[in-house]
## 1
Amino acid sequence: MREITYRQALNEALAEELERDPNVFLMGEEVAEYQGAYKVSAGLLQRFGPRRIIDTPISENGFAGLGIGAAMVGLRPIIEFMTFSFSLVAFDQVVNNAPNMFMMSGGQFNIPITFRGPNGPAHQLAATHSHATENFYASVPGLKVCTPATPRDAKGLLKTAVRDDNPVLVLEAELLYSSKGMVEPPDEELLIPLGKAEVKREGSDVTVVCYAQTVAIALKVAAQLEEEDISAEIVDLRSIKPLDENAIFDSIVKTHRVVIVEQDHPFCGVGAEVCYRIQKNIFDELDAPILRISQEDVPMPYNEHLEHAVLPNAEKLVAAIKQVCYA
Amino acid sequence: MQPVEQRDEVDMLSLMLLIRRFEERASQQYQAQKIGGFCHLYIGQEAVVTGAVAAVRPDDYVITAYRDHGHALARGTSADACMAELFGKETGCSRGLGGSMHFFDKQHHMYGGHAIVGAHVPLAVGLAFAIKYRGENRVTLCFFGDGAINQGSFHEALNLAALYKLPIIFICENNLFAMGTSVKRSTSLKQIVDRAEGYDIPGEIVDGMNFREVRDKIAEVADSIRKEPHPAFLEVRTYRYRGHSMSDPASYRTKEELEKYRLDDPVIRLRAQLTREGRLTHEQFDQLDKRAKETVLAAVKFAEESPELPVEKLHDYVYFNGAGP
């Protein structure tokens, strides 16, 4: 194992998959000559050439659709959205074409495509550039959605996504690109299955279900609460769809209390689905009502203090944990 | 592989008759409530797709919008599979899961059947991208209606095709109406073909009621593309005799206009050309027509007797697991 950044981990995943399979290509705005808006694709043009690392005009609908068409005849495109906020311009392609093709062609055309890029609020980007899209996309049958929180997960999930025979969205996080973590050496194949959560920290008093940017918040809070004799178990979903509900249940059977901390909006958010499944399957295990921390139900304001108030944060999570623990 | 320019014109007339009789029978079965959802008929436009497939190879890529029955039939999908699809049966070309607007046939390189106006034009560019990526000699034929040319996806796709010099023919089947809105009320240009100029794509106008003109033009363009990949644009002027869909009485146009186009009917025109040249007798024509009607009637019977996909298989068509449903 060695320590690398989330950005480097994604870059390695791209390079390894491009190297492995000649049908894989990377396409998006600024991915080639500019070396990536967030430098995730740095060096790939030099290594793989312009046939496989392809700059596009600002035409999200057009190049997302191009990728889907290429996937219909067996190529394995990786389509980068500069941010998933811009994927909304291509919503029709991502929602109407990619996941529907298999059903509406009677099983003749599966779409092996990866859509990737940063998702969720970054810092003071205001309403149009801060969308957390995981709950929109996870509600669409035919799509798979993963949300890596660490460099290791980023590498392993992206590689798995590229090899999947269905449309997979890899929702990265801008604020995590420079974060560091331990990852297997490049000569060791790292594939992390979609639909497998991971306990990022073991605990016994309360389960915190989290993903993407909220994992770091949860881990920080868990460390802090240890000093107050509250032991929090941190379950990182890693994939939103398929959802590893058993990992959630296993943890709650141990702790009997749960807080969900998510980065999307509360109405029909990821946590709403998780809550439903918990109460349906292990209602009797619960010793307290389930609480959810999400964004406030408002468009994102630019003002820094207001933005902070909208986002899930450590203070909100601590309060929720204490509430479910009656502490 | 048969060079298409030499595909027999009598066979192509047969194909046009098959499409026409298929659509007439589909209309009747729709009214008898054997067919659900939306159903858009191709009657009047037969020479466009027939001319196009006569000009290209069987392994070239074809993709179209929702008025797609003719395209599947022209590509080689059986009338049985097409009618069964309309009936929602497992034996349909999309196993009864797509319906009228979503005909797919991988074996015959028919890539749909797409029902969001303009949304398949980027897909078509992706098919063409794959051809160039793999260094193949194929051409993509992308059909769409005059209604698609004002969608953003259309413009983005044309720009991408021109930028990357992809082997694709954009074939605008201009039947003068996007549902009930005439081109004059939807499009700022005097002629649709001028859209292509904005993307530095060569464009031409073709008489879509004339099989030979469509075939020859597409053969010429496809030939040029095979020599050196590039996009091309054809505005093919045609006319649909029926409303936009089965529920549309088409009261937005006059009887006189419809009659004018009926006089220019693509089937009658090719028939007259062949008769004049001594290549088809009246008896032979009647025979072809009779065969087309019989094929379609047999297809109705096939569709009626076919099973539906069982509910237990519903979830097999959401994610591909490598093994196939």
Note: Residues 1-5 of chain B have pLDDT under 50 and may be disordered.
## 2
Amino acid sequence: MHGAEILLQPGVFPRLLQGLWVTVWIAGVSVGVSIPVGLLVGWLMTLKNPVVRAIMRVYLDFIRIMPQLALLFLAYYGFARWFDWNLDATGACVLVFILWGGAELGDLVRGALQSIPKAQYESSYVLGLSPWQTFSRVILPQAVRRLLPASVNLATRIVKTTSLAVLLGVVEVIKVGQQIIDANRFQFPTGTLWIYGAIFFMYFIVCWPLSIVARRLEKRWSHD
Amino acid sequence: MTIKIGNAFKTIIATGAALMMAVSVAACGPSAGTPSDSASSDSSSSSSSANAKARTLDEIKKSGKIKIAVFSDKAPFGYVDQDGKYQGYDVVFAERLAKDLGVDVEYTSVDPAARVDVLTSNKVDLVLANFTVTDERAEKVDFAKPYMKVALGVVSPEDAQITDVSQLDGKTLIIAKGTTAETWFEKNAPNVTLQKYDQYADAYNALLDGRGDAFSTDNTEVLAWAKANKGFKVGITHLGDDDTIAPAVQKGNKELLDFVNEEIAKLGEENFFHKDYEQTLEPVYGDEVDPDEIVVEGGEL
């Protein structure tokens, strides 16, 4: 039988979509929570307090230096053994992606904040705004436009990196694909390429709109 | 613009709180096939003691679910059928164990290399994933009585058949990480280049694509595969020692181990594993293989 027919088998597409939902769910929750975390981390990074800066520095470097896969294994197996903090596989993934997204986004936020002219801060203080008010009402709205395109790119990277979750046993779209390939390997020995091809398009459909949004925003704001 | 320490401190706490929230959100995540859907509720009950302590038999009964790690891409032992249900030789045994314990099964899909870790970190209660008993593994987990036996086999393309290990000298052999084949070839055939894969599906594809000269894993597995894939033959059907395959529990979980052992002895009386073989393995092996070469009944070799 032709390999492409594997995609028409009953249950194949619904199951792939179910797997895609797990992928999108992990990425969505991670990105969603990364945003507030990243904003706070970015703000903390711009503070003058040496202790806070040192902590943020270590946090960012640690997350950047460690491969995501190592972090995933630490969160999944390590936490359970050392602290008896038994996260399920999905929870471990979300935790790691939030820490990662928060750190990377934090660094983007820091860059954006520091690119805001000092006069903006000084004017706000003169007007009697507190540091928090200055941050949230004056600086942040300006910084957000500068950092949005880059953070959308970060979001697509998180979507793609969720494929590592398969190594913790999360049955997301890639694992579902492998299960389907295996269960049909006698009937459709050449089905592999078709299943992975379908998965490729699924990732593409999830990530493509994001990169379109990023490009549009970049264009629209480039003249501001 | 100096900032008070107190203010910064509050922010750190807020950040922490946000993370905690995220984790608890994750615990009620999507229902589609996450390996431990309800793990959050019952695993917390065991979190009072140090280390990832295994659940007792009572705790398993109370939770109504036994967590079992099986393969999800290794037909006919553990795989997922087109309805998304777990099937196979290991799964039939898992279902029976759960039935006799009066609970449901919650399956976790594992890769070969993760089978020890899911036990030591208490992700599952029991591993029923074609787990070959070795001394090295027995130091980390407790094996119950065997329910199958196996040796290594080597499958290769028919037109370049490998019938002896010496033929592999200087050639590339495909293996799956964390399998007995990996250890055996590392120890006994240093001249063979090993090409390692995490997933069986990928290893087979590597062989089909010709990325290696042969693929070695349990003979049961390669026999089944070669039968379904034209142009490939198992040139070496018996390599290394006869190994046994047994259920595994976390080291020291004697209660569960005893239960599984009693079950295996009891099931031997009703020839359970031969029936299991007829149901799941015979359609794949056909009559070329004698069931007694594979099945172990009642834990007696």
Note: Chain A touches chain B through 66 residues (CB under 8 Å).
